[in-house]
Amino acid sequence: MGIEAAVWGELVGQSSAVKVLAAAADAAHRLDGAARSAMTHAWLITGPPGSGRSNAARAFAAALMCAEGGCGECLDCRTTLSGAHPDVTVVATEMLSIGVDQMREVITKASMSPTTGAWQIIVVEDADRITDQGADALLKSLEEPPPSTVWILCAPTPDDVIVTIRSRTRKVALRTPMDRDVAALLVRRDGIDETMAAHAARAAQGHIGRARGLARSEEAREERRRIMQVPGLLTSVGACLRTAEALVAMATADAERRTGELDARELAELKEALGFGTKGTRPKQAQAALKDLEDKQKARVKRLQRDALDRVLTELTTWYRDVLSIQLGVVDAVDDDTIAAIGLINAGMRERIRQAAECSTPEQTIAKVDALLEARTALEHSVAPLLAMEALLIRLGGFAVVC
To answer: CB atoms < 10 A from the CB of 92, how many?
Structure first.
């Protein structure tokens, strides 16, 4: 079935990558040894956030499992895409990293023979989060893989994966989808109105999941509008500090809202397993287990908080990109709003953007974009969120930092 297979349908604008993966799946289904050997046992799928790395990995796994090369309708395809196939293990984390203990569990699974098909497939959606010790454990499995095991690792870039790991994989790179392709997917798959789909696709800048969220949620659109007000609020150092505090509070509330029900359910299940409330219970012996769960839940909130702040940085970057575009004359202050136009991302804020462009220089705008990139790096290296955001907004406001 190859590149036309149904499982590839949601990989927007990724024809080159799909061609490579589909060809490998086709080769894997042939009976002769020469063709089967064309199927590499370890893959690294890279691409910017929202480009569809996880979707590509699952589609590839389905194409390998499906007798038709990825029909999208059979039991193998449906269970693989949904994460329920017994021979396809998907490793994703809500924590800050994937440690050695988790990797050892996965490696044990990878060493087993398939139960229903020809392959035992391990998809690691966050390979960039594997710790050094976890990578050391994985390395042996990559160097001496069982003949029926396929590893599919996903990461933003090859450089995000430890060199000893990436050197043993075949790399497939995804690109940022075009706005019009993302909008077409939202209309076709989700039934979104064309105008709303075009607006969401442009605002999301190729991030398919973000575009879908903006198109379907007024709350998400309102949050974005609040973030885009930030540049106009930075009128003093005090205003910068207050705004930073508000952004961190918003990110924390978002993270806690998303995890609240899950945390409560996990705690209730653990207490039931430990026998709390039953005769003969010795709760003091269970404190270590409760403390371990608490630590994991705190790490999950921290990860989601950081992700929320990363969305803030991404949205602010679109503002300064628009300002710089006008300053450099790349786009006119009066621009075409259609999806096909190469113009302002935030076309509805054109007048504010034009005023900001007139009040600063391209050099100053580039410095602010650099500040956003440095703030992202700081958050990735576990700098306290409030400190990172305060330093960022003071720089965006143009105020000198006194040492």
So the answer is: 13
How many percent of the chain have pLDDT more than 90? 59
Q: Are residues 389 and 252 in the same domain?
A: yes
Q: Residue 1 in 3-state DSSP?
A: coil
On whether both 24 and 133 belong to a single domain, the answer is yes
Distance CA 245, CA 393 (A): 10
Which of 137, 153, 173 is at the close of a domain?
A: 173
Q: Are residues 202 and 88 in the same domain?
A: no
SS3 365: helix
Enclosing domain of residue 225: 179-231
Q: Under a CB-based contact definition with an 8 Å cutoff, are residues 29 and 94 in contact?
A: no
Q: 121 — phi, psi (to 5°)?
A: -110, 130
Percentages (nearest 5) of helix, strand, coil residues in the chain: 65, 5, 30
Within a domain: 249: yes
Could you tell me the two tokens for 215? Answer: 């198109």
Summarize pLDDT for 336-371 with one digit per residue, the tens. Answer: 544 444 588 998 899 999 999 999 999 999 999 999
* 402 belongs to a structural domain: no
pTM of the model: 0.78
When divided into structural domains, the chain yields a total of: 3
Please check whether residues 258 and 350 belong to one and the same domain.
yes
- The stretch 238-245 carries a mean pLDDT of 97
Q: Could you write out the DSSP letters of every residue in 265-301?
A: HHHHHHHHHHTTTSTT--GGGGHHHHHHHHHHHHHHH
Write out the two tokens for 309.
């702040």
Rounded CA-CA distance 89/399 in Å is 50
Output phi, psi for 41, to 5 deg: -85, -10
CA atoms in the 13 A half-sphere facing the CB of 361:
4
Interval 14-55: pLDDT, tens: 999 999 999 899 888 875 555 555 678 999 999 988 889 999
Do 52 and 184 have their domain in common? no
Residue 236 CB neighbour total at 10 angstroms: 12
Alpha-carbon distance of 90 to 272, in angstroms, equals 27
Question: Are 167 and 122 part of one and the same domain?
Answer: yes
Considering the domain architecture, whether residues 163 and 186 belong to the same structural domain is answered as: no
